[in-house]
Design goal:
mainly alpha, three-stranded antiparallel sheet, single chain, 7 helices, about 150 residues
Length: about 150
């Protein structure tokens, strides 16, 4: 008599392939990207510090710390730490909002903008190396799909 194996947990384990899971592959791709970032980034900036500086330069005028965190995808505690380290290096400027005295506004300093100009070739190389296994249409598709799930 044949035994029905469809409810056997061992069969379910056999069906689950870690290599086919999105989270696993995203983590591996992220680790590869961060290794490339660390290898090529000059200016002693972390990825979050770079993202923060570039977002500040992309905005029209100063940005609140909360809004900046949202623009970069950081929680409040991480934003505060990143800003503190950038302030210590005189790469950003902070001031109280004249209208809402509880709010602080951030902008880049001249030193911060100069550092960004210096590292832009690095980040372009980092992107190029990260995407190097892909052809042009694959690169466009990957970025489009990543934006779609974000």
């Amino acid at each position: 008599m044949a035994v029905d194996q469809s409810d056997n947990p061992e069969n379910e384990k056999d069906k689950y392939k870690l290599d086919d899971q999105v989270g696993f592959n995203l983590r591996l791709a992220y680790q590869r990207h961060m290794a490339i970032f660390s290898e090529h980034m000059s200016g002693n900036l972390t990825a979050m510090q770079f993202s923060t500086l570039i977002r500040l330069t992309d905005t029209d005028g100063p940005v609140s710390q909360n809004a900046l965190g949202r623009l970069v995808g950081m929680d409040a505690a991480t934003t505060k730490g990143v800003i503190s380290r950038l302030l210590a290096r005189d790469l950003v400027h902070i001031e109280r909002d004249a209208v809402d005295r509880r709010r602080y506004l951030l902008s880049t300093t001249e030193k911060g903008r100069e550092l960004l100009a210096q590292v832009l070739p690095d980040v372009r190389q980092i992107t190029e190396e990260t995407l190097s296994p892909l052809g042009p249409s694959e690169r466009r598709s990957l970025l489009k799909l990543l934006k779609k799930i974000n």
